[in-house]
Specification:
WH-like_DNA-bd_sf; mainly alpha; RNA_pol_sigma_r3/r4-like; Arc Repressor Mutant, subunit A; 3 helices; Sigma-70, region 4
Length: 70
Amino acid sequence: MADQTDHRAEPVLPTRWTTALWLVDVHGVQPREAASLLGMSTPAVTALLTRARHALREQVLADHGRTTEH
């Protein structure tokens, strides 16, 4: 049987973005605590999370042949 594995590239986000997403969105760490762990200010982590979520969403939509442009 032929290999049915999806060979699309995994979303590539900067390490700091991925770390922040895992801390806050997966592990439930508050942005203030994530900021301390990452050596950043809380507003910087909040901005980083916004950029990371947007980039991840764009990658998922692109993988499915869709865009966020109207």
